[in-house]
Specification:
mainly alpha; 15 helices; abc type-2 transporter like fold; single chain; about 425 residues; elongated; four-stranded mixed β-sheet; about 70% helix
C-alpha cells in the first residue's frame, strides 16, 4: 500500500487546495443556498392566493352633490380590498405622498366629472377618465387603476339598465357597485384557489431547497475533486517518477489499483463531508428531515457519490494529459461553471434557451440534476421515479467510464513516446 499512502500524503501536502476548494468554496455554496433553503422551508402553502393591498387616496374636485356621492362610493369600493388614505387636496401634500411611497395611487375626480359621466352614459359614448397619479415604485398602484376602470364600467352598466341618467341615478348606481363588490368579497368569490397538477406535490416544506443544495455538489465536485485528484495523480506521472516505479518490485497493475483506491476513498471522504454539511444545513433551517423517505435519501446519496466519483475520473483524465497545475485549475473551473449554468441548478430549465439545454445534455451535470429531481419528485420530475433515477445515474457513471478510458489511452500514448 506504499502508493496509496504516498497519494494521501500528497493530498495533505496541498493544504491550500484543500482549504480553498473543499472548505472555503463549499462554505460559500452553503451561504448562497441558505436563503433558498430557508424560503423553501418556511414558504406558505395554504392554497389561497393573497391579493396585494394598495394604499389609495381619492381626491374630489367636483363640488356637486353627485360628485361627492361618486367620490364617496369610489372610496368605499377601494376600501373593500385596499387601504384608503385621506389626503388634503394641495399640490405639495400630493407630491410628497407619492414621492415618499405613502400612497400607491391617487385618484382625482376632476371638476364637473359627474355631469360629464352622466352625459356619456346617456349618449352611449366613452366615459371620461378619472385622473390618477401612481407611485413609480409600486405595482399595486397600477393594479388599482384597473379597479377604477372596473368601478366606472359597472356603474355605467347599472345606470344603462335602470335608464336613470341623472345625479340620483348615478348615486344609486355607485352605491350598488360598492355593495356588489362587498358581497363578492364576503362570499369568497374573489379568492383564487391554487390548483395543483399532482396531488400532494409541493406539500413538503424544504424539499426544493434540499434538492437545490444537493445539485450544487456537481459544481463543487468538478472544481474541488477534479483539481486535487489531477494534481495528486500528476505527481506519479512525471517521467522521472515513472522510471523509478518501473524498477520497483511492485507491479504496475498493483500501483494502478492503489491509485484507483486513492481516488475512490478521497471521493468517499468528500461525499461524506458534503452530505453531512447539507443535512446539518437543512436541520438548521428548520426542515424536518423525516419527511424524506429512507429510499429518497439512499437515491440522493448514491447520485451525489456518482457525480463526485465521475469528477475524480475527470481529474484522472486531466492528469493523463500531463497538464500543469495552472492548466488543471483553469480547465476544472471552466467545466464546473459550464455544468452550473447548463444543468438547471443555477436557474429553472424553463428559462434556459434550447442551445444551453443541448450543451447541458452533453455534460454529466445535466443528468445528475435530473436524477436528483427524480429521486425527490421535484423540479423536472412530477413524482418520484426510481427507474428514471437509475437510468440517469447510470448515464452519469458512463461519463466516468469514458473519462477513465480516455485517460488510459493518453497515458499509454505518452508512455510509448517516452514523455
Amino acid at each position: 500500500m506504499t502508493t496509496f499512502k504516498a497519494g494521501w500524503r500528497i493530498v495533505f501536502a496541498h493544504k491550500l487546495y484543500l482549504a480553498i476548494y473543499i472548505v472555503w468554496l463549499y462554505a460559500m455554496m452553503v451561504m448562497m443556498s441558505a436563503a433558498v433553503v430557508n424560503n423553501s422551508v418556511h414558504q406558505s402553502d395554504d392554497g389561497i392566493f393573497s391579493e396585494a393591498k394598495a394604499s389609495v387616496a381619492v381626491v374630489n374636485r367636483d363640488d356637486t352633490e353627485a360628485g361627492h356621492e361618486l367620490a364617496s362610493s369610489l372610496r368605499g369600493y377601494f376600501a373593500v380590498s385596499n387601504t384608503v388614505i385621506d389626503l388634503q387636496d394641495r399640490p405639495t401634500v400630493l407630491q410628497n405622498a407619492v414621492a415618499t411611497d405613502h400612497v400607491d395611487l391617487i385618484a382625482i375626480v376632476p371638476e364637473g366629472y359627474a355631469s360629464d359621466f352622466i352625459k356619456a352614459c346617456e349618449q352611449g359614448t366613452a366615459v371620461p377618465k378619472i385622473g390618477t397619479v401612481t407611485s413609480y415604485s409600486s405595482g399595486a398602484g397600477t393594479m388599482g387603476r384597473m379597479e377604477i376602470d372596473s368601478f366606472l364600467s359597472n356603474m355605467r352598466i347599472s345606470m344603462t339598465a335602470a335608464k336613470t341618467f341623472d345625479g340620483s341615478g348615478m348615486a344609486k348606481a355607485a352605491k350598488r357597485t360598492v355593495e356588489d363588490k362587498r358581497a363578492a368579497a364576503a362570499s369568497g368569490e374573489n379568492k383564487v384557489a391554487v390548483v395543483k397538477g399532482d396531488e400532494g406535490k409541493g406539500v413538503v416544506p424544504g424539499l426544493t431547497g434540499f434538492a437545490f443544495t444537493v445539485k450544487l455538489v456537481a459544481y463543487l465536485a468538478f472544481t474541488a475533486v477534479t483539481v486535487i485528484i489531477a494534481v495528486v495523480l500528476s505527481a506519479f506521472g512525471g517521467a522521472e517518477r515513472r522510471r523509478r516505479l518501473d524498477v520497483t518490485a511492485t507491479s504496475p497493475r498493483r500501483i494502478g489499483l492503489q491509485q484507483i483506491l486513492l481516488c475512490v476513498t478521497f471521493s468517499m471522504a468528500v461525499w461524506a463531508l458534503y452530505m453531512l454539511v447539507t443535512c446539518c444545513l437543512m436541520a438548521a433551517c428548520g426542515m424536518d428531515l423525516r419527511v424524506i423517505s429512507a429510499g429518497g435519501y439512499a437515491m440522493v446519496a448514491m447520485a451525489v457519490f456518482s457525480v463526485i466519483l465521475v469528477s475524480a475520473c475527470f481529474g484522472y483524465l486531466l492528469s493523463a494529459f500531463g497538464m500543469s497545475e495552472n492548466a488543471v485549475n483553469g480547465v476544472a473551473n471552466v467545466v464546473g461553471l459550464a455544468i452550473m449554468f447548463t444543468s438547471g441548478m443555477a436557474f429553472s430549465v424553463s428559462l434556459m434557451p434550447q442551445a444551453m439545454i443541448t450543451i447541458g445534455k452533453l455534460l454529466p451535470g445535466w443528468w445528475y440534476c435530473v436524477s436528483i429531481d427524480k429521486a425527490l419528485g421535484v423540479g423536472t420530475a412530477s413524482s418520484v421515479d426510481v427507474a428514471g433515477w437509475a437510468y440517469d445515474t447510470g448515464l452519469v457513471l458512463l461519463f466516468g467510464v469514458a473519462f477513465v478510458c480516455l485517460g488510459l489511452g493518453f497515458s499509454r500514448l505518452r508512455s510509448e513516446r517516452g514523455e
